[in-house]
Amino acid sequence: MSGPAPGAALFEERFGIDDHSLQTALGTALERDVDHADLFFEYSTQDAVALEEGLVKSADRHLEQGVGVRVQVAERQGYAHSDEITTESLQLAAGTARAIATQGGSPAPVAVRGPQNPDLDLYPVDQAPTAVPVAAKADLLGEIDVYARARDPRIRQVMASVTSQQRTVMIAASDGTWVTDVRPLVRLNVQVIAEGPDGRREVGYQGCGGRYPLARLLEPAGWQPLVDEAVRLALLNLEAQPCPAGSMDIVLGPGWPGILLHEAIGHGLEGDFNRKGTSAFSGRLGERVSAPGVTVIDDGTLPERRGSLNVDDEGTPTQRTTLIEDGILTGYLHDRLNARLMGHTATGNGRRQSYAHLPLPRMTNTFMLAGEDEPEEILRSVQHGIYAATFGGGQVDITNGKFVFSASEAYLIEDGRITQPLRGATLIGNGPDVLTRVARIGNDLALDRGVGTCGKDGQSVPVGVGLPTLRIDDLTVGGTQG
Question: What's the predicted TM-score (pTM) here?
Answer without folding.
Answer: 0.94
